[in-house]
Queue: 2 jobs
Job 1
Amino acid sequence: MLGLMMNQPLRIAGLLEHAAKWHADTEIVSRLPEGYIHRYTYHAAHQRAKQLANALLALGVTPGDRVGTLAWNTHRHFELYYGVSGIGAVCHTINPRLFPEQLVYIINHAADRFIFFDLTFLPLVERLAPLCPAVEGWVLLTDRAHMPAGSAVDLRCYEELLAVQSTEFEWPVFDENTASSLCYTSGTTDEPKGVLYSHRSTLLHSYAASLPDCFNCSSRDVVLPVVPMFHVNAWGIPYMTPLNGCKLIMPGPGLDAASLYELFEQEGVTFTAGVPTIWFGLLTFMREKKLQFTTLKRMIVGGASCPPALLKAFDQELGIEIRHAWGMTETSPLGTVSTLKSKNLQLSEDEQFALKTKQGRLIFGVDMKIVDDEGQELPHDGVAFGDLLVRGPFIVGDYFGTAHPGELTKTGWFRTGDVATIDPDGFMQITDRSKDVIKSGGEWISSIDLENLAVAHPAVAEAAVIGVPHPKWSERPLLIVVRKPGADISQEELLHFFEGKVAHWWKPDAVAFVDQLPHTATGKLLKTKLRQDFAGYAFEGAR
Ligand code: AMP
């Protein structure tokens, strides 16, 4: 027997319609690449998203077409999220930090018909356009006054496209499983792969993101996503904010510590989210200037492992509740967040802190397990580590344009490529990427744990650990370190720092000092490059 409730499909446009109706005067504030602050309300954003929908239809965009964006977090990018998906087309957010060859591959693979981009990316677009002949139009996200005088690319002006359109528009109703947006993984070794979200997956993820043990945002919050809208939909924040009626602050290209701090204080930001590198920069800036936050209460750190030292500093020096989260492009992206259960509050401060540094507990909508090399499920004892598998209604089922449909999740689970432990209370801890884990004498050593320890040393700016072939142990850890400016530390001193903090056989065998470490376009350590650089490395006495 079927239930007798209204069968209304979940649609992204519904989120903005809701905010425009019930939080009409709540603001969206953007710092624009043109150099000024733009301010309007959810009501005005909705009017303009409807104008954009009319403009897209006038351009001939039809349901299922891909419309690309190369843009910062601004109100115009927000309008594209709603205008494009709202008419049943696919908002393809492109990460401008990727290498140009990857961008060309992605734009051609997605078969984007139009690309909307910010002024900052004009030189990039001029390089890309001749290599992406299928793109029918390049739209500059600005007004007439800021259009360049001459360009090799035939450009259209966003504000002019909108200005001639009516604000009257009825969002179409369609199946909630319709594709809504597309984001390619950054892929360090393989070609980038497209994750195609649906209206249903996005709405369910927005509810999940709002939960108290996740972002816990309400209509009293002022939310600033530092995490970019070109990478996994800014962790769902542009959808979660209208759902809850939060004031939304868009930082544009100003992601340096001074600009962010200024915006936090000016706009009374209460909640923010970003990757560890950004928060390290902010912490250093605030320490130097002896600053405190006056309104910020809570921040999410994720996208890469958050070193305990960072968590402690924000918590203890700046009085911010900092939540460590894990996810991937393939998981929409929120998977786990480290918030304490009631029973954990009985623990000592150090024990509570140890839990908070883990990647955390599942959000409803995601299920997970860890398995060994044979696919056998491993116990949730916080010790056993294995491959992390996930499933759920906002987890990828297949990549876009895949040659082998169904292959990816034929077991019903998605293999994350991460290696993790799960403790009896459900706290998951990533110990490595499966290809980065160091296999020493049949046992596994976590490169992330060693890196976290190394960066806790005051002389260390950044650290990476890779496994280097060893005749006896098969692999042993090599610590590669960038010293802080002016800091002087020897290999012996640094290795001594590990004594008593990890099992003796986890201690790296050697330290290599370098000037800088290679990173991917999304700021993650590029270990494939490090492994190439150190391909011929041999530990002393182990040749
Ligand atoms: P991406 O799809 O580019 O967002 O990358 C996802 C990958 O980033 C995950 O599979 C993890 O390897 C890594 N990652 C994300 N969040 C965390 C975290 N909190 N701790 C450790 N690794 C993380």
Job 2
Amino acid sequence: MILEGKIGRIIVEENAIQHLKEEVKRLNPSKVCVVTDKNVGKIWFENIFKEIGLKEVEKFEIDAGEKGKSLNTASRLWKKLIEGKYTRKSLIIALGGGVVGDVTGFVASTFMRGTYFAQIPTTLLAQVDSSIGGKNGINFHGKNMIGTFYQPSFTIVDTKFIETLPENEFLNGIAEIIKYGIIFDRKFFYFIKENIETLKKKESDILQKIVEKCVEMKVEIVVKDEREEGLRRILNFGHTFGHAIEKLSNYRIKHGFAVSIGMVMACKVAEKVTGFKQVNDVKELLEKTGLPTSTKIHIDKIVEEMVRDKKAWYGKIVLILPQEIGKVTIQEVEKDEVLNTLKDGA
Ligand code: ADP
Ligand code: ZN
């Protein structure tokens, strides 16, 4: 499947990577730099860029994990581009997960006011979510505090990268996949529910089908609201709780795991506020997947953190709440109502 539009050209199909050479040729860049992290670089860089016949590309490796998303990394990369005489007609390719994609997109958007940029996401999370939509950023006095919206020229989503992905990182992505079902597509939710065992085995047909569907949904949402002023906010389902949980755990709880807990919390609030009835369906699926549905972190702490966060306003918290599977609303809920609903792990 090839999607095209203001989000760039997105190729998501089996063996999508075979399109890399022609995509680069089409742009005809003066130089190509591939940014990757140490893990992905080791496993995939040679494999892809040498075999495909793009021999003149340069490689820039960053530290794996969240610490790679720093001003220091951006600064080193800017310097390399300047010293290497890169221009606005050069191409910077991100080969990696969300960390690589975010910092690379940020640098590509700011170097000489923007050079060509491409994404080759290698984690499930990046493939179904963060690589699509043009958001980028670095951590600076807080997570994602500095960044831009900048669309890549092309994005290649190839599920074969998932084969080497550690189990935890795989589960991290499944949380976002389940999220799409709840916010946008009832049929898709129950399809995942029926096929969860096969998906967990990374069976390639089912994985392909699911990744394609998620990319399609994300594109549909982002195209309607590129700068996150309306519809796109539904993608934050489970994230207001999730971000607080991540932060309070000092980021020891991974994003997808925190979102999983956050989705259950949002569902429970929805049970009261919107009359949502499928909390158990959601919980059951997350449990079957192997994702957490509760945390030891006290709900008082979580709500306090949410109120501190930019999404809270005068004791009210803006939440994305399901009405039924596949349909959500955005609502302001009193802080006390959230607390009362969720205390005692209710
Ligand atoms: P996310 O997309 O969840 O933000 P990160 O960019 O933090 O993910 O990557 C998570 C971890 O997985 C990092 O340690 C990274 O090096 C590693 N990783 C990314 N893609 C692959 C892959 N295809 N195979 C093996 N490890 C990978
Ligand atoms: Zn997320």
